[in-house]
Amino acid sequence: xVSVDGFDALIASMAIVLPPxxxxxxAAEYRENAxxxxxxxxxxxxxxxxxxxxxxxxxxxxxxxxxxxLYEFARGLIARRGGA
Length: 84
What we know:
- This protein has three helices and no strands.
- By secondary structure, it is mainly α.
């Protein structure tokens, strides 16, 4: 299974850092991706997503870039507060 680099450490850090700010927060991970099959090449997955999204594909790609920037920003905040 493909994993985001440092994801497990980030989840562990969130479990420590976020509960004081968000009481009741429970870090949980769900490793399920309907478009990810073990025998499917990356380009096949991208083609499948592109076909399913139709005209919205370009906006999805653009918003994904925003998600990645937000992820890096949040990761930096957690690191500065003593997380991973």
